[in-house]
Amino acid sequence: MASIVIMPKQGLMMEEGTITQWLKKEGEAVAAGAPLFEMETDKLTITMDAEVSGTLLKIIHSEGDVVPITQPIAVIGAPGEDISALVGGEMPAAEAAPTETAPPAEAAPAAAAIPTAERTPGERVFSSPRARLRAEENGVDIAAVPGSGPEGLVIERDVNAYITSRPAVTPLAANMAKAQGIDLSGVTGTGAGGKITAADLPGSTPAAAGAPAPTPAVPAATAPGQQTRGAHTEPMSGMRKAISRNMLASKSTNAQTSHRMVVDMTAAISLRSQYKALGIKVSYNDIIVRACAKALADMPIVNASVDGNSIVYHDYVNVGTAVSVPGGLIVPVIKDADIIGLTGIAEKSAELIEKARDGRLTDADYHGGTFTVSSLGMFDLDDFVAIINPPESAILAVGKIAKTPVVVTSNEGEDEIVIKSMCALCLSYDHRIIDGAEAARFLQKLKNYLQNPVLLI
Q: In what order do the strands lie in the sheet with 66-68?
């Protein structure tokens, strides 16, 4: 008897998923427990296995489709089985399993690949998340890649094929070609090793052999008053929609305000160096997470959440760390950060960051947080204000550690200027349950732990 494959629910907050790739085609055999398709949720891309064995008789939703949870996406059954009752009569049983004598054109996908030349300026280009990631990693304009997926969807294998076949091109020529909508696949390069240069682009006039080179002319497409530029739109990924929804909900429901404090990180830097000398890898972020966990244990109100007219006090301290990934960010959670110690936090943080960037996080890895640390110091940012991650009530924004002139008072009572490694911390908190004085005391405790890191061990 045929079985319906549904869009699975992966996580409590998931409402819909995007099918990024079918790993089996209609008519192919599938085995229970073997990979069937890939899907993107609001947090990650995962591979889903078939729950039953049989033949993939019908794909109801194609690659790129956004499907609500529990909705049918495919049918698996016996070859030739009548499934018209399951798919509303869309497909007779005879079509469920193509025969070997069927003409090649009928066995091929209904939508052919869309060559770049057929795309008009500003035309919407659909692509899978993995294709966009691969394109971004290799500096490829996704709009220049012909799509072989349903209705011209650009998938990962299209980008890989484009990367393999694309000619060598100088950065200037690549930028000019992108601005003018020129397909470089038909351009012959005259540079070293056949590399395409700006002079090889249509509209450019290379110097004739033996003749003086003319004054370079402005390409027609970029001449003043003649340049035409369009715009294109792409649907939000599941992750981007989740970020949009959560951040908007946070700003509209929380009474968010913030406090800022500058902390001397000299002692923390020394602590990290001592661990490094012992061959133990500990990051500054790990030290900050550990200090936050200690301060949260001291001040349960900052670790609490609002539930209607009630305050929920958590008996555990789970600290999320914001990690940037292609297309957005994700917040894996370090569970029991108050009891696993600094080295335990360092090990768990490294594991979660690697899983987040490889798209291997599970639902349990990014749910259950009670507080979040967001660090952007690696981008040379002095300080910033972060938005609270619901249902949490506070988030700490961490800027860069920078050598700064600081006025200190000597034992003799004299003021002097010294250079110290300082770091700006900004605590955003929900004023509905956390008062300004409590937020200030939390930052004071955090400062004390960071400036006296022996207390963290």
A: 45-49, 35-40, 16-22, 66-68
